[in-house]
Specification:
Length: 65
């Protein structure tokens, strides 16, 4: 399981959940925590998926661990 931190406004939650739900077929979770989203993902995003996310979700920073 990969943890991704996404620095985005709280209002972007719906867009983020829709995008990750489509990519991971409902197997990802999104939680608002201390001013950013903490996302549990089955795997990291590929570069094409990341590029698609940039078009769907307005965010300032993305980090996987």
């Amino acid at each position: 399981m990969t943890i991704a931190i996404v620095d985005a406004r709280y209002l972007e939650r719906g867009n983020l959940e829709a995008f990750l739900g489509r990519i991971f077929e409902g197997k990802a979770s999104v939680k608002w925590e201390r001013g950013h989203f903490k996302c549990n993902l089955p795997r990291g995003l590929t570069q094409p998926e990341f590029d698609e996310m940039k078009k769907s979700v307005e965010f300032e920073h993305y980090n996987e661990s």
